[in-house]
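Morning!

This is the sequence you dropped in the shared folder:
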Amino acid sequence: MDSLVIAGKTYSSRLLVGTGKYKDFTETRAALDASGAEIVTVAIRRTNIGQDPNQPSLLDAVPPSQFTYLPNTAGCYTAEDAIRTLRLARELLDGHDLVKLEVLGDPQSLYPNVVETLRAAEVLVKDGFKVMVYTSDDPIIAKQLEDIGCVAIMPLASLIGSGMGILNPWNLQIIRDRITVPVVVDAGVGTASDATIAMELGCDAVLMNTAIAGAQNPVLMASAMKKATQAGREAFLAGRMPKKIYQASPSSPTSGMIGS
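The structure's back. C-alpha cells below.
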C-alpha cells in the first residue's frame, strides 16, 4: 500500500493512536502493537513522560525509538496554554518538533476554539514546530491553517470521545479536495466502519483514542481498526463503482446464456 508522508517523513501505517484512557501502560503497549500505529499521541498534561521521576513513565512502555511521539495539548483552552505546553514537550523530548495542536472551546463539548487555534498555530509555526492541528470541519478554517504552515489538518468527525462517527462527510470531502497537506480525521470515531468511511472519502489517515481504549477489548478493537483503515484506503485507491439510482445491473453476463 502507498505510504503516508507527514512533514517529510514516511509512514507505512495510516492509523494514529492515542495513549490515554487505558488501564495501564501494559495494555497501552499491547493495543499499539495490535494497531500497527507508528505515530502515537501523548497528552502532555495528563501523561508522565519524565515530569514526575517517581511515577511510571510512558517512555519506558512506548519507547520513542520505536514510535513517533505526537505531543498534544489536550486540556488547553487558550493559545497561551497550548504554546506553553508544547514548548515544555519539546524540552522533555529533546527538541522533538512534531506536535498536535488542539485548543478547546469548552469542557462540555470539547469543540475546538478555532480563533485560539489559529493564534496558537501562527506562533508555533514561527517557533519552528511542525504542527498537526485539530480543528472543526470548516473548510475555510482548514485552508487558513494550511496557509499558516501547519503540516497536517485534523478535522473532527464528531465530538471528542462521542463515538458518533462521521456526521458531516460532505465537509470532510470539501476539505480533502482543497487541502494539499495530509488530512487526518480526528475525534468521534466509534468503530471500525467509521475508520473505513473516513479513508474511503480520501482522507490520508485516521487518529483515535477512545474508540480503542474504551472498547470492551481494546487490543482486539485496535486490530480491527488497523484492518478497517487499510480496507478503506484500498477501496479509495481502487475507485468504487458509480451509484445507479433506480437502475439494476446484473453481476453475471446476460449474453450467451444456456437456452437463449
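Headline: DSSP finds nine helices and ten strands in the chain.

More detail when I'm at my desk.
O.
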